[in-house]
Amino acid sequence: QVQLVESGGGSVQAGGSLRLSCAASGYTYSSACMGWFRQTPGKEREGVAEIDSGGRTSYSDSVKGRFTISKDSAKNTLYLAMNSLKPEDSAMYYCASNKGRWAGRRCLHLVGDEYDFWGQGTQVTVSS
Fold first, then answer.
1. Exposed/middle/buried for 35, CB within 10 Å: 0-12, 13-18, 19+?
2. Which of 5, 17, 90, 117 places its Cα 20 to 30 Å from the Cα of 128?
């Protein structure tokens, strides 16, 4: 299957920046989507950003204009550049991928149920 390993989380002051990375290994699904989700204790998981196999992207309104999702296919790595961070961005961030449209998966809707594979998460803490 697919293994995902996130890195790059940490603590930063409000207004600062971080870049998360997600290294993927294992089987490659040609039409797969990849995305970033986040969750804080007691709250539902939130879709942050997605990128499809053609490079199209989708962002939640709360991060649009501040976060940028990208991928390096040669390195099988997904990135999330986070700028102008706010305390409300503090969460565990998870990388996810799916089996793509050939397996009936949708993309760019920021829906976690459309994803098949998940990383272990990396913590982001933004202090005011």
1. buried
2. 5
3-class DSSP state for residue 21? strand
Amino acid (one-letter) located at 85: L
Residue 24: CB partners within 8 Å, gap ≥ 6? 2, 3, 4, 34, 76, 77, 78, 95, 97
Q: What are phi and psi of 51, to 5 degrees?
A: -140, 135
The length of the chain in residues reads 128
- Which pLDDT value is given to residue 35? 97
What is residue 45's predicted lDDT score, i.e. its pLDDT? 96
Whole-number Å distance between alpha carbons of 118 and 94: 7
Residue 46 DSSP code: E
Residue of 52, 30, 60, 49 whose CA lies nearest to 93:
49
The whole-number mean pLDDT for each consecutive block of 10 residues of the chain, a chain of 128 residues, reads 96 98 92 95 96 96 98 95 98 96 90 95 97
Measuring CA to CA, how many Å separate 128 from each of 65, 82, 84, 90, 121? 20, 16, 12, 11, 23
